[in-house]
Amino acid sequence: MPLKSKIAKKFIFPTSIFSMEVFKRLLLPISSEFFSENVAERAEKFVELFGSKVYAVYIIEEKTLRKVDEIAEPFLTEKQRKEMEKNIIEKNKGVANIIFEKIAEYIPDFERETIVGEFSDVIMKKAKKHNATCVMMGFEKECFLRYRLLENIKIPVWVEIGKGENVLGVCSNLAPNVRVPKFTLKFAEKFGKKAYFIYVIDTEEKIEVDEKGVKREKTMEELRQAAEKFAAKYKKYADVKIAVGSIEGEVAKYADEVNADVVIIGREMKKRKIFSREIKKEMIEKIKHSLLFLN
Known about the structure:
Structural class: alpha/beta
Number of strands: 12
Strand order of the largest sheet: 3-2-1-4-5-12-11-6-7-10
Order of helices and strands: HEHEHHEHEHEEHEEEHEHEHE
Number of domains: 2
Strand content: 15-25%
Radius of gyration: 21 Å
């Protein structure tokens, strides 16, 4: 029996997180400091496959305006500085229009807006206003990605970093491992890609989180048994690797090994918050493949 039909027969995806409604309404925030055309190219695929609605917002960074004002303060009057700020905003609006035209090459029909504000705050407000189901943004090391957003926002965040061939789901003893496996299989099926899983046994805190989110202390042998049970459950539908070590390090290595197009990560339950802002930051900077934080 083909892989696709086996997945469809075995798994039922009753909720929106599994039915790809994650991509129903996409918010594309664009910083005045950085634009990744690859985000538009990726969003185009979601529009074609899922009929996604796209909202693009160009954010003129307040911190950039403040920095310019601070530098100019000793030399210019307040009136001159206000005029300079106005000119900067107008020039950025022109840049925004150029970027919107570039996005239109991939997605002809989308809503657009230019606004002055703080990056994360604007995204939170616009996500709520448009009832967005996913935020999509680009990343380059030279451009500071606002990690506070990853910690606070309650909807999935796609970080476009690099392309590949396959889909990698990240599971662990620190997570319930319900959403990520099912979403990974469904996503791979929709895009005709091969699914892989990596189950990382994180030994810094020897606990296991069950499907209800309850944490229990376990021995190393019990953690290995749980990992093997997970592998046995999903090996018919995907390749499963069991690793012991830090999540960010093991995932980075395996993502390269399987040439991941996207690495899918869920919100875990660990006390030290392995997928908190700091660890998400490390994962984004270490992994050279696109990431989807289901949140």
